[in-house]
Amino acid sequence: MNEPNVALPPLLEVKDLRVSFGGKEVVHGADFSIAPGEKLALVGESGSGKTVTALSLVRLVHNAHITGSARLAPANGGAPIELLQASERELLGIRGRDIAMIFQEPMTALNPVYTIGDQIAEVLQVKQGLTAKQAWDGAVEALAATGIPEPARRAATYPHQLSGGQRQRAMIAMALACRPRLLLADEPTTALDVTLRGQILDLLADLQRQTGMAVLLITHDLNLVRRFADRVAVMEGGHLVEQGSVTSVFQQPQHPYTRKLIDSRPARDVDDPRGTEPVMRAEAMRVIYPVPIPGFKGWFRKGEFVAVQGAQFEVPPGGTLGIVGESGSGKSTMALAALGLIPHKGQLEVVVGKQWGPDTASNRGIRRLVQVVFQDPFSSLSPRMTVEEIVGEGLLVHEPALTMDQRRDRVHRTLEEVGLTEAQFPGLLGRYPHEFSGGQRQRLAIARALIVEPQLLVLDEPTSALDVTIQQQVLKLLQRLQRERGLSYLLITHDVDVIWAMAHRVLVMKDGRVLESGTVEQVLQHPQDPYTRTLVAAAA
Description:
Layout: E1 12-21, E2 24-34, E3 39-43, H1 50-57, E4 65-72, E5 81-82, H2 88-94, E6 99-102, H3 106-109, H4 116-128, H5 132-145, H6 151-155, H7 164-176, E7 182-186, H8 194-211, E8 214-219, H9 222-228, E9 231-236, E10 239-245, H10 246-251, H11 256-262, E11 280-292, E12 302-315, E13 320-324, H12 331-338, E14 345-350, H13 360-369, E15 370-373, H14 387-398, H15 404-417, H16 438-450, E16 456-460, H17 468-485, E17 488-493, H18 496-502, E18 505-510, E19 513-519, H19 520-525, H20 530-539
Parallel strand pairs: 3-8, 3-9, 6-7, 7-8, 13-17, 13-18, 15-16, 16-17
Antiparallel strand pairs: 1-2, 1-4, 4-5, 9-10, 11-12, 11-14, 18-19
Helix pairs in contact: 4-5, 4-7, 5-7, 7-8, 8-20, 14-15, 14-16, 15-16, 16-17
């Protein structure tokens, strides 16, 4: 195993780094260094400045004023290279060869019109002067090093033909093809499912040990930091507020913001469900989509894709049923069926024996009792509607006899219930969604669902788009509302920590099937299925 060589001069030494956009400084005098072979994590929430800091080191931040010093040790002796003063020609030689970067979302970082092999080969031809044949062979070799099966065949595919994990492996192969001395990894696992995150992190650790490169990991995920890094630097509002070894910072954090981040892991806080009659019950639920059969034409030449296969569950009164699984497992499809938004087969009883009917009119009564909070508050709220219109819209449908003053009073009371008041936001009812943060928007979405006084809320990844501290606040709000209102929740998530914090019972789904179900304590503390054990281990 390669240990960071702290006895040698730093591979990269950054002093008084300042980055400004239009006269507004967003990184305020950052100082840090990375030793050869070291893994340093730069951690912070959205908007903390961590990605801008990393991009500024290789001058990939456009329209920014960058000052300070970022000195890269030379590969073969000589004077250090001042990255912030280097010419564009010098930087072209450094990028990819000495310093490489992995971006957060490979689907947008990879070129969709070139094969994976061509994109990696181009790097080798430009940076190492290889022939086309040598570069192609090098691309296949780089893909093989990342563990992609059938690397020669995968090299001839396009980005959209690969899975999310394979695209991220291809991005890593491209970054490491020229054996850089420093890898900048910007949220390399954020776009991946939890089990894939562990695989990619293990891959990076293995490749780091094999090559001896240093890694600057940009992340908001403290679990990744614990698992991967040697040292950690914590960033808040453009300031580096704390640095040290992972052990010292996590065991004895000095700065209040660091303590806040560490304490923000969701804590279990559930009461026993109220009563015994479930508010929703499914028996042998199946959701089937028609798919084209190759070689046939016409509507009657269709095959079937079974997205949910024979699911059985009950949502306890005043309790939470969690459904956990990766992307494509069928959990969100099951939520849509539970909401009556897509057709299903099998039995589904909603709120004491009612069933979804064939049309909007027949479902209006049930629709009031079953509401939904969607994953992304940035897209689920209309940008053209005011807060009063968004939150009060359900009353126009379900209580049309209310006067405008009565409706406005209900909107005010519901907003106060979710922690949004006129004292905090003068003119609250006339504001628009873009005037609020992500956590505040999700509170608006919760208020919109609550105002019609439902019995069941379907929560589809309600915190996945939020930073960790904001996630904790929203989970505490949902826990409080459940106690005060006696609400039942159908909670859809990929996050085992959220299930542990919120749920009474849990279903584990994979490929449309329920692999395991039971109480949260049974399933998460004593998992029986190998896939469940993998999920739990990845979240540890």
